[in-house]
Amino acid sequence: MPQTQHGVGLLDDLVRARDLAREGRAAEVRMLADRLDRSGQPVELDDRVLLGTLLGQAHANAQEFEAARAALDAVLPLVPAACPLRQARFHAVAAWTAHGRGDDEAAMDDIVRSLTMVEDPSLPGGEDLRAALGNCSLVLALLQLFPLAAETAERSVQVAAANELAVGWSECQLGFVYLSWALRLDHLGLAEQSGRPWAQARVHLSNALASGAMSALFDGWAAAWRAICSARLGDIEQGLADLELARSLPVSPPNPSVRDFIDLAAGALLLAEGQIQAAESTLLGLWTRLDRPWRSPFVEEVASLLGQAAAARGDGAAALRWYREMHERYGRAQYGAWLARATAARLRIEQEALLRRTRELESDALSDPLTRVPNR
User: Fold this and answer.
1) Short-list 292, 328, 336, 333, CA closest to 307
2) Of the candidates 86, 10, 7, which has an alpha carbon nearest to the alpha carbon of residue 46?
3) Are 255 and 61 in contact (CB under 8 A)?
4) DSSP state for residue 191 in the 8-state scheme
5) DSSP calls for 103-128
6) The domain spanning residue 230 has which CATH number?
7) What pLDDT score does 357 carry?
8) Nearest 5 degrees, angle CA 207-CA 212-CA 218?
9) N or C, where is the chain less crowded by C-beta within 10 Å?
10) Where is the domain boundary, 141, 164, 187?
11) C-alpha distances in angstroms, 21 versus 2, 175, 292, 311, 332?
12) Residue 363 falls within a domain, yes or no?
C-alpha cells in the first residue's frame, strides 16, 4: 500500500480490507467501509477508490460478479482523479469482473487501461502494482493471451520480491497462467508442447503453497490446481494429497469455484486410477455447473475427460460426442479471444493517440504555441 497522508488506524483498516477481500468476505469489507463512513474520519480519494476496488475484488473472489460490478460502479466516478497505480488496480479487478459476467470485450478494455497505467518504469513498486499485474495476468490467461499473461504474472512476482512483499499470491497467479496454457495446448492435441507449462504450473503452485502467506481461499485454489497438474503428470499420490488438502481447508465463506476445481481434480485422478464410473459421475455433475462460455478452458477439460472416460469403457459414440463438444467450445472461445484481441488493438491505438495529444497540450501549456518560446 502506498504511504499516503493518513493515520495508522486508517492504514490498518485498509490492510484489513485487503485481507478480507482475499478471502472473498465481501460483507465484512462493506461493514468496514460503512464504519469508516460513519466515523467521520477523512479518507482520501485514492483510499476511497481502493476500498471500492477491494469490495469489488471480494465479490469477484466469491464469484458474485454482478455484486462486484455494482461495487466498482459506485467508485467509478472517482477513478480518473486517483493516482495511476490505484487506477490500474481498479481496472484489473474490473477486467476480472467483466470476464466473469461474460463480457470479454469490456474485460480487454479494462486490461488495456490497467496495463497502460503501469507502463511507466518510474512508478513506485508495491502492493498496488503487484496486485494490478497479478489480476491482469489471470484475465489475460482466461482470454487465451498466454505469452502476455505469463510475462505479466512474472513481472508481478518480480515486483513482490523486489519490494519484500509476500510472493505467494503472485506465484499462485503465475501457476494458474501456466495451468490454463497447458490445458489449452492439450486440447489442441499439442501434448509434446504442453509438458513444460504443466511442469511450470506445478512448480509455481508449489512455491505458492510453501510460502505459508496466502489465505485459505487461495490455498484451496492452489492445492486443487496442483492436484490437476499431478494427475496430468502421472503423480497420483501427490495429486490425492493435494486433493485432501484442498478439501480440508477452512474456506469461509464456502466458495463455489474451489468446489468446482476440487471436483475437476477428483475426476481427473479417478480417471487416472481407472475408476471410470466414479470419474464420470463426478465430472457429469461438474459439467452442469461449468456449462458456461466464460469458464474456458476448464469446461473444455471436463468434456475432454468425459470423452476419455467414454473411450475407456468402449463407448466410441459417446467419446466422439464429448470430443466434438470440446472442440466446438474451443472454437467459440477462440472467436471470443479474437474479438478481445481486436478490441485490444483498437484501444491501444486510441490510447496512444490520447497520450500524444496529452503531451502536445502539456507542451503548449509550458510554451507559446506559436513561437515555442518557454513561458515565464
Assistant:
1) 328
2) 86
3) yes
4) H
5) -HHHHHHHHHHHHHHT--TTSPPSHH
6) 1.25.40.10
7) 54
8) 80
9) C
10) 164
11) 18, 20, 25, 43, 32
12) no
Structural domain boundaries enclosing 113: 6-28+36-164
What whole-number distance in Å separates Cα of residue 203 and Cα of residue 226?
A: 9
Cα 257 to Cα 240: distance, rounded to the nearest angstrom: 19
Residue 311 lies in a domain: yes
What's the pTM value of the predicted model, to 2 decimals? 0.86
- Residue 198 and residue 234 in contact, taking contact as beta carbons nearer than 8 Å: no
CB contact at 8 A, 272 and 291? no
CA distance 155 to 222: 19
Q: 375 by DSSP, 3-state: which?
A: coil
Place of cell 497505480: 85
What is the per-residue pLDDT across 164-189, written as a single tens digit (0 to 9) for each?
Answer: 999 999 999 999 999 999 999 999 88
Decide: 104 and 140 in contact? Cβ < 8 Å: no
pLDDT given at position 1? 45
Contacting residues for 317 by C-beta, under 8 A, at least 6 apart: none
From CA 16, how far away is CA 29, in angstroms rounded? Answer: 8
